[in-house]
Amino acid sequence: MASKDAHTPKSRGLPRFLPGAPDPEQNPNPGNPEWQPGLTPPRSFLPTVCLPPGLEYLSQLDLIIIHQQVELLGMILGTETSNKYEIKNGLGQRIYFAVEESICFNRTFCSTLRSCTLRITDNSGREVITVNRPLRCNSCWCPCYLQELEIQVPPGTVVGYVAQKWDPFQPKFTIQNANKEDILKIVGPCSTCGCFGDVDFEVKTMNEKLTIGKISKYWSGFVNDVFTNADNFGIHVPADLDVTVKAAMIGACFLFDFMFFEHSLAGL
């Protein structure tokens, strides 16, 4: 969808990688570590030949929009309800729907730290991605038991993880493959309040020399024909990124919502 002004989701994206271009580790402009047009991702996370069932359409996207559905009854009563998300393309068309499965006890007493399972289905109701979140700590003073997600694509087959890394100043995470080997790094800002602007989590190569995308929490004042006034996220990635890594980034987006924005006034 063509951008009409500076505030449309497309203009927030980064240039996409082009097939057949040089290796990004050989950055022709070392003074600028940002993603440059004409670069391709490292081979370790290029698309696989056989796509997991249900993720064929995901392989074509360089912008994924995640819109949280707000439960009005839960807001009125002040109770925790199971999270629900619509996952859309850049045109605002729904491609997946995610529902949290968790028990009331966990939602009430563990709040945003609760263990849960997020089941992502396509428009036909087929489950295509499963995200498992165990009960973990969320404190910079407890570095040994930090947040982690398990990504299954298709359900029952583990393809990756999102793991929080200890840092006293910035939110830091890694995307790992099925063998728990780090393949990408996610670095957030020092402050995630997002009161008057977007909050960007940059997706980088492990050496942090190249930024290949970002996960953004959009400011609640940002409204257009795609969004309503609720928690909205955008995942900007190369179109030819491996779909399992895109699935892991969707899972990371859910984790950031739980950790940083669940009780934020910016999402109301």
TrEMBL record:
GO terms for cellular component: plasma membrane. Its cofactor is Ca(2+). GO terms for molecular function: phospholipid scramblase activity. The keyword Transmembrane does not apply. Keywords: Calcium, Lipoprotein, Palmitate. It comes from the Eukaryota. Residues 1-38 are annotated as: Disordered. Residues 21-31 have a biased composition (Pro residues). SUPFAM superfamilies: Tubby C-terminal domain-like (SSF54518). PANTHER family: PHOSPHOLIPID SCRAMBLASE FAMILY MEMBER 5, PHOSPHOLIPID SCRAMBLASE-RELATED. May mediate accelerated ATP-independent bidirectional transbilayer migration of phospholipids upon binding calcium ions that results in a loss of phospholipid asymmetry in the plasma membrane. Belongs to the phospholipid scramblase family. This is Phospholipid scramblase. It comes from Ictidomys tridecemlineatus.
